[in-house]
Every structure is written in C-alpha cells, then in structure tokens.
C-alpha cells in the first residue's frame, strides 16, 4: 500500500485483503487523519489512484456519490484486493508516526451560551515530555472520554495553541445525546476527562494573499473561531469574512469574542444569518434581530456573485457544519466558478452528542 499526500510525499504500509486499511496503517504506527472508525464521518477519505479495493458500507454523507465517482474511499471501511496506490487530500504533516497523545483534562468551567450550546474549558495535564503546553493546528479537534465509561466524543477546539494547557470547546447538546446529557447534568469544575489528540486535517492552507471566507453553522463556529483567532495573533494579511448561520437569534453565540476579533483582525467582515428570526420554530419574526435572515448558503452565494461581478478575487472557503450545509456550500462555490479544491470542510453534528 502506498499513500501519497497532497504535498508529494509518500508513505508505505502492508495490508492484506483481510484487513481494513486504517487498521493496518495504525498497526504499523502510521496514523493518517481519522475519527469515528465506523464510516460515518469521512475524516479518513482518500482516493484510489491504482489497484482494486473492496468498499464496505458507509454513511452517504461520509462518502458522497461525487467523491466515490472520483475513486474516493474511507480507509476505515476499505480493504485492498491488490497492490493499491492512494492519494490523500492533506499534507504529510497531518500524518502521525506514533500513537496520539493521551492527557488528563480537568474541567475548569462550563458556561451556558444558549439553550443548546455550552462552552467547556479544560486544563490539560502534562504531556509525554512533561510540558503543559497544548500545540495543534487551528481547526483540529480533541477526542474526550469520561473515565471509567465507553462514552467518547470528538469536539473541535475553539481556542489557539498556548503554553498553559487551556482548551476551549463549543458543544451543542443533542436531544438524547449521552455526552451532552452527562455534560449538562453531571459534569462540574474539577472533574477529569481523558483527552486524545489533536486530530484532523481541517486546517488553514498557505495560499498566498487569496481571501479567506469562513462558513459556520451552529457549533461549527468552534474550529472557525480558532482559525480566526490564529489569524489575529499572527497578523495574517488575507482579507477574511465569516458567514455565521443558526436557526434562531438566541443561538448566535460568542458575540463578544467576534466583536473583539473585528478589532484585532482589521478587515474582518461578519455576516450573521438566522433561518427563523423568531425565538421558537414557527414563531413570528423577532423585531430585535437586525441582521440577515434566511439560509447561510444563500448569503454566501450572494456574496460570491457580487465578488464575481465586481472583479474581486474569489476566496478560499472553509466550512464547518452539518453534512447538508457542507454539501450545499460546496455546490454554491462550484456554481460560482470556484474549484472544488479551494473548498475545505469539516462536518459536525454527525454523532449524537
């Protein structure tokens, strides 16, 4: 098996027809980006360049027909039937060559941001090298486990790398979700979790001065917030625009943080939209909501059309939200003339939280 990364590097590992590719790679201390291991998230996507493979069933949002038609496979749900060459949609730096770090994580704070949304602040214990810092690429996530249970979930990081081990997460409580129920009813400051990671290939790309547009739906704001904070810390010069869509006005969280970012990241534009400007589904419009209404997809489409008409450079687009939103954003970008390889995405909300 040969896996060639986007930046032209290659790694090889042995895998027989009786073993899934991801299992074989990890058995040989090769850890490409992956998450669920069940074919439901799409994080381990790669493309068959040559060779024959057997695909096992997977979720349609994890491996859409358009990706399958291009030779897409999920390493966690695929077995080789011959020598196989794969192409990875990420750089070699995203591949680890040792098991992911595992650290204790103490809950410092749980903040109610809205009825369904919580801010969870953790302090990570020392790593393998004894250091307390937390290093990752903005856009990546941590996998959290409640000790003594099989309760494990992955959540994107909203903060930026630091030396004191502080990690901020935004978590949407899903109806009936085990982790969300534990967080809402049992968790308290001082309690401990096990954190693994960082993981993920949804990270900023260095593509010169091309504009960067970000699209976030609900808790998909977390990795985008981390990316924008990093841009502010480093003084990145790329023009930035955030499209933030929620169902109701009261679900628009982190407004103070976004206002601060507009002060520290000159030129950052924020487009806020709500699908229903009332306070409850079916309610009358809320007159206090003065920003946009409707779909965040429509807001992005209108901005892309305006940029094209005015001869402005088209942006790279980073999108995090539900599988339906991600697919709609991709389709809108392609319709506007943006190549697919300039749309970078991460799905959230796939697992019941």
From TrEMBL:
<dbReference type="GO" id="GO:0051537">
    <property type="term" value="F:2 iron, 2 sulfur cluster binding"/>
</dbReference>
<dbReference type="InterPro" id="IPR001041">
    <property type="entry name" value="2Fe-2S_ferredoxin-type"/>
</dbReference>
<dbReference type="Pfam" id="PF00970">
    <property type="entry name" value="FAD_binding_6"/>
</dbReference>
<dbReference type="InterPro" id="IPR017938">
    <property type="entry name" value="Riboflavin_synthase-like_b-brl"/>
</dbReference>
<dbReference type="InterPro" id="IPR012675">
    <property type="entry name" value="Beta-grasp_dom_sf"/>
</dbReference>
<dbReference type="InterPro" id="IPR006058">
    <property type="entry name" value="2Fe2S_fd_BS"/>
</dbReference>
<protein>
    <submittedName>
        <fullName>Oxidoreductase</fullName>
    </submittedName>
</protein>
<dbReference type="Pfam" id="PF00175">
    <property type="entry name" value="NAD_binding_1"/>
</dbReference>
<feature type="domain" description="2Fe-2S ferredoxin-type">
    <location>
        <begin position="1"/>
        <end position="92"/>
    </location>
</feature>
<feature type="domain" description="FAD-binding FR-type">
    <location>
        <begin position="100"/>
        <end position="205"/>
    </location>
</feature>
<dbReference type="InterPro" id="IPR036010">
    <property type="entry name" value="2Fe-2S_ferredoxin-like_sf"/>
</dbReference>
<dbReference type="InterPro" id="IPR050415">
    <property type="entry name" value="MRET"/>
</dbReference>
<dbReference type="InterPro" id="IPR008333">
    <property type="entry name" value="Cbr1-like_FAD-bd_dom"/>
</dbReference>
<dbReference type="GO" id="GO:0016491">
    <property type="term" value="F:oxidoreductase activity"/>
</dbReference>
<dbReference type="Pfam" id="PF00111">
    <property type="entry name" value="Fer2"/>
</dbReference>
<dbReference type="InterPro" id="IPR017927">
    <property type="entry name" value="FAD-bd_FR_type"/>
</dbReference>
<dbReference type="InterPro" id="IPR039261">
    <property type="entry name" value="FNR_nucleotide-bd"/>
</dbReference>
<dbReference type="InterPro" id="IPR001433">
    <property type="entry name" value="OxRdtase_FAD/NAD-bd"/>
</dbReference>
């Amino acid at each position: 098996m040969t896996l060639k990364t986007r930046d032209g590097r290659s790694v090889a590992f042995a895998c027989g027809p009786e073993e899934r590719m991801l299992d074989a790679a990890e058995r040989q201390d090769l850890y490409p980006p992956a998450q669920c291991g069940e074919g439901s998230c799409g994080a381990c996507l790669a493309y068959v360049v040559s060779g024959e493979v057997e695909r096992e069933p997977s979720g349609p949002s994890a491996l859409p027909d358009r990706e399958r038609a291009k030779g897409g496979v999920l390493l966690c749900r695929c077995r080789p039937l011959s020598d196989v060459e794969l192409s990875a949609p990420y750089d070699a730096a995203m591949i680890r060559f040792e098991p992911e770090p595992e650290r204790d994580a103490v809950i410092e704070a749980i903040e109610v941001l809205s009825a369904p949304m919580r801010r969870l602040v953790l302090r990570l214990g020392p790593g393998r090298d004894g250091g307390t810092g937390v290093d990752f690429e903005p856009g990546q996530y941590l996998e959290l486990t409640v000790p003594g249970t099989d309760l494990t979930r992955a959540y994107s990081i909203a903060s930026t790398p630091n030396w004191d081990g502080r990690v901020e997460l935004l978590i949407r409580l899903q109806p009936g979700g085990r982790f969300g129920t534990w967080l809402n009813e049992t968790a308290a400051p001082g309690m401990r979790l096990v954190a693994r990671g960082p993981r993920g290939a949804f990270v900023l790309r260095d593509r010169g001065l091309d504009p960067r547009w970000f699209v976030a739906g609900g808790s998909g704001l977390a990795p985008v917030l981390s990316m924008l904070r990093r841009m502010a810390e480093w003084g990145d010069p790329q023009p930035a625009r955030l499209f933030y869509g929620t169902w109701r006005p009261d679900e628009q969280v982190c407004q103070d943080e976004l206002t601060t970012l507009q002060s520290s990241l000159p030129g950052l534009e924020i487009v806020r939209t709500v699908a229903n400007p009332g306070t409850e589904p079916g309610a009358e419009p809320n007159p206090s909501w003065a920003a946009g209404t409707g779909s965040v997809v429509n807001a992005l489409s209108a901005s892309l059309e305006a940029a094209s008409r005015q001869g402005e450079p088209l942006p790279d687009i980073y999108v995090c939200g539900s599988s339906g939103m991600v697919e709609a954003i991709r389709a809108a970008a392609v319709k506007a003339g943006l190549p697919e390889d300039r749309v970078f995405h991460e799905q959230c909300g796939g697992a019941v939280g």
